[in-house]
Amino acid sequence: MKKKSRSSKEKIRELLKQAEEGAKLESLHEQGDATLTKGRAKANGLDPAVAKRLQHLEEENRRLRSLVADLTLSNQALKLAVSKKW
Question: Cβ contacts of residue 36 below 8 Å, gap of 6+?
């Protein structure tokens, strides 16, 4: 089971934006700059709209990969059933 993040991605992006504008990291977030550093590494400086679109595309890709895997298994099962000599 994946550990749930304490800070939402949008909140981290907003804090990163504030940090770029000159605010001190410790004053922005109670967890210090470790959370923001990790968030910065994940966001790679992307615009929030682009980051959200990228996340949506990654979720869609994950869903489509799962569908392809299911269809491949079904296809293999059907080929095995047809190839048997009755």
Answer: 12, 15, 16, 19, 25, 28, 29
Give the predicted TM-score (pTM) of the model: 0.47
Q: Is 22 left (phi over 0), alpha (psi -120 to 50) or beta?
A: left
Orientation angle between helical segments 33-43 and 9-20, nearest 10 degrees: 100
Which residues does 13 contact at the CB level (< 8 Å), separation at least 6? 39, 43, 48, 51
20 exposure class (CB count in 10 Å sphere: 0-12, 13-18, 19+): exposed
pLDDT tens digits along 20-33: 776 655 555 555 55
**How much is the average pLDDT of 10-21?**
73
**How many of the other CB atoms lie within 10 Å of CB of 37?**
13
Contact between residue 35 and residue 7 where contact means Cβ atoms under 8 Å apart: yes
